[in-house]
Task: inverse folding
């Protein structure tokens, strides 16, 4: 299975995916790292691992149609089967979602459907979780559809919230879980053990 990873930041989940591949746990390879930011740390990780990179941003194009065409062309050029969003902070265009229906995954640093949607990323998520008084948080891998943080859930894992937690300490514990469950979800896809019907996902 060829994975195209989309990332906007330092790429820790991207690195976790690569580690799982290098360890022989995840039977796949990353053929493309796409970022909307030219200075994303994930691009350096890709280059140091000999992985093709693409810097594509809506700002580079006069309209969305040309931007979408460029994204789809990059995915086709590198024979991408599954897209893994790893800290990618842009909405995936509808045309790309349709072209890769049920083949785009995202990792979210909370237990969806709670604490998702526009603006719910990074420290904003953990601040909202702590402000809510919840006793647990966690991470979610879900399939991407046309809405933010909305598609069917593939896998979740919880972490306890401790009384002295700050957004930073909670984020660190959730990130550890993210690095654990994202390769797990991708492994199920790579081994064809996933069935999707409407908004339900089964892993065999």
Result:
């Amino acid at each position: 299975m060829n994975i195209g990873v989309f990332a906007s930041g330092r790429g820790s989940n991207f690195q976790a995916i690569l580690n799982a591949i290098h360890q022989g746990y995840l039977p796949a390879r990353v053929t493309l790292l796409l970022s909307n930011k030219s200075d994303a740390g994930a691009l350096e990780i890709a280059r140091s691992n000999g992985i093709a990179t693409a810097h594509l941003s809506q700002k580079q194009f006069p309209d969305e149609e040309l931007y979408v065409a460029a994204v789809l062309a990059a995915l086709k050029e590198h024979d991408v089967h599954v897209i893994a969003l790893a800290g990618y902070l842009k909405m995936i265009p509808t045309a790309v979602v349709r072209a890769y229906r049920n083949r785009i995954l995202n990792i979210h640093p909370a237990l969806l459907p709670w604490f998702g949607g526009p603006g719910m990323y990074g420290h904003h998520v953990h601040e909202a979780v702590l402000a809510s008084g919840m006793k647990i948080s966690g991470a979610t891998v879900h399939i991407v559809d046309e809405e933010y943080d909305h598609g069917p859930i593939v896998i979740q894992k919880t972490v306890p919230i401790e009384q002295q937690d700050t957004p930073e300490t909670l984020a660190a514990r959730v990130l550890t879980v993210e690095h654990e469950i994202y390769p797990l979800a991708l492994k199920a896809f790579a081994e064809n053990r996933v069935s999707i019907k409407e908004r339900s996902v089964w892993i065999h």
Remarks:
- Helices lie at 12-22, 41-48, 64-77, 94-99, 123-132, 167-190.
- The two ends are 18 Å apart (CA to CA).
- The chain has a mean pLDDT of 97.
- The beta strands are 2-6, 29-35, 53-55, 82-85, 104-108, 136-143, 153-160, 194-197, 200-203.
